[in-house]
Amino acid sequence: MKIRGVFIEDTFAEAFTMRVARIIITGHSSRWVRAAALKLTGFATSVIGCKVEAGVERELHARETPDGRPGTSILLMTMGKDDLAKRLVERIGQTVLTCPTTACYDGLPDAPDRVGVGSALRFFGDGFQMSKVVGGVRFWRIPVMEGEFLVQEKFGMLKGVAGGNFLILARNAEAALGAAEAAADSMASQPGTILPFPGGVVRSGSKVGSLRIKSMIASTNDAYCPTLRAITKTALPESVNSVLEIVVNGVDAPSIASAMRTGIDAACRDGVVAISAGNYGGKLGPHHFHLRQVMEGAGG
Amino acid sequence: MSGGLVARLKGPLRQQADFSEVLAGPWTTLSAVELARRPVFLQRDGQTPLGDLFDLKGEPRGQIRFLGDLAMADRLGAGLSEGEVAVEGDVGSEAGLALSGGSLDIDGDAGPRAGAAPPGFKRGMTGGELIVRGSAGGEAGAAMRRGLVVIVKQAGARTGVGMIAGNVVVFGPTGADPGLWAKRGTVIALGRITPPATYVYACTFQPVYLRLLLTRLRIRYGLPVRPRHLNGFYRRYSGDMAELGKGEILAWTAR
């Protein structure tokens, strides 16, 4: 398969099941919403080192938010249920509670699994907090120096999918970066998905384990490093001199497939030789996104 | 509200009538015939089935609408725990007494002690939503523990007296001594209000939770929430200092 002259390899992206929460942050203005979102989703690229993967799903117009103020929707993912509750409390407590004018709501009201967030953060109120039930949903009003921080008591949790990906194999670094930027831009507003890495792009794709150090769970994906072409078992065609990866997480497999389709299509441009994907032979992750099926509108 | 049961008053009520057992406990799955057997207590004539006073038609589906002049109907919706109840007109005293769930939406005035605790009980409402689109008599929401009381026009004296928690929203002027002896809970005044002397002014601020609550009232019940209510400032008074002091009156202000 070729798209605008770019070869789509007959391979698949291998993705994993993770727990996901959707966090809605609102604030007095977009400035403060973004400030909180930036901190909340900071250092949250990969569970390997950050314990969570998080990103902004999309910005929300005031008419879309529970309190009628500007907002943003964030997906935050962890490997386990218990971990999700801990990370939500840590991150919302340190980055949203602290941010002027913000409030924080659950974005998965229909999810049957619930974890306590406001119910834990309320203790910051030192006994001065107030509980309010609005429309059958409990919120906590926590007094702060600025006024009040409003946070929903419980957040919904779903089984999401993490690690959808594709690799952009390009003739040079400039072409790889341009294609990756185009892909990330096109995927930025895909509903139900996030791109957890910086700017949506990864330059340091990893393989499982290490060739030399047994205790390492991940190390550089040497097969895709152009500088190692001569000294390792390379997976790169001759003309490729730079590779960038797009990683996409989401609430379900169809959302990821849709985002991958959009991103790959945008990445197929001058200077790009091929699109590939990262997998572990299909033995580790239950979700397989076959690139050619994805581009034909199926897959995932 | 469309659909559900319709209860149309056959003739004018000429004596006070106690409706406290009509909607108490489970009722949303009862047929019109079954509900018609529930008792109403007339002041002079004693007990009579609801069906003798009302024509009941339709399927319940969790909703009932009362039509007719019910100004002499006391304790309508008392003990309500489920479903949606609409009343097209005025009701007597103690509507929604000890409400614990569901909604009671009165498209007229309510007499004294709407949504209050039964006499001798320490706790009033423990849930549910009572909407009075007209004015309400004194002591609405007395001793409420949870839930919501909304009064669109004027609220009588001692609204929210002895509140333990919950919300009372008054769009119009609020009578004397609101929230007197409240332990917790919130009286939200969008109109004129004079807090009791045992409430202490704290600050003027914009409570975000009010945006949630008022937006819900606008969407769910079509109540006249204005942008100034959503975007405005509120004077917070803490009280009742003669009690626990964890209650509050939030009084809208034009600054």
What attributes does this structure have?
heterodimer; A: Alpha-Beta Plaits; two-stranded antiparallel ribbon; 7 helices; elongated; B: 255 residues; mainly beta; Pectate Lyase C-like; 4-stranded mixed beta sheet; 4 helices
Describe what you observe in this structure.
The complex is a heterodimer of chains A (300) and B (255). By secondary structure, chain A is α+β, with helices and mostly antiparallel strands. Chain A folds into two domains: 2-15 and 160-295, Alpha-Beta Plaits (2-Layer Sandwich), CATH 3.30.70.520; 19-158, Alpha-Beta Plaits (2-Layer Sandwich), CATH 3.30.70.520. In chain A, 23% of the residues lie in helices and 36% in strands. Chain A has seven helices and 18 strands. Chain A has helices at 30-40, 47-50, 81-96, 118-121, 173-187, 253-267, 291-295, and strands at 2-3, 6-8, 12-26, 53-60, 71-78, 103-106, 113-116, 130-134, 137-144, 147-152, 154-170, 193-194, 201-202, 206-208, 218-220, 242-250, 272-276, 287-290. In chain A, the strands form two sheets. Chain A has a 16-stranded mixed beta sheet that branches. Chain A has a two-stranded antiparallel ribbon with strand order 14-15. In chain A, helix 5 crosses helix 6 (253-267). Chain A starts with a strand and ends in a 5-residue tail after the last helix. The longest helix of chain B is centred in the C-terminal third of the chain and has 14 residues, at 208-221. Chain B has helices spanning 32-36, 50-53, 208-221, 227-231; strands spanning 5-9, 17-18, 39-42, 46-49, 54-57, 63-67, 73-74, 84-88, 103-106, 126-132, 146-151, 167-170, 186-189, 200-205, 233-239, 247-253. The N and C termini of chain B lie far apart (38 Å). Chain B is mainly β. Chain B has a single domain (5-253), classed as Pectate Lyase C-like. A twelve-stranded mixed beta sheet of chain B has the order 5-1-6-8-9-10-11-12-13-16-15-14. In chain B, strands 4-3-2-7 form a four-stranded mixed beta sheet. Chain B is elongated and about 55 Å long. The chains are: A alpha+beta (300), B mainly beta (255).
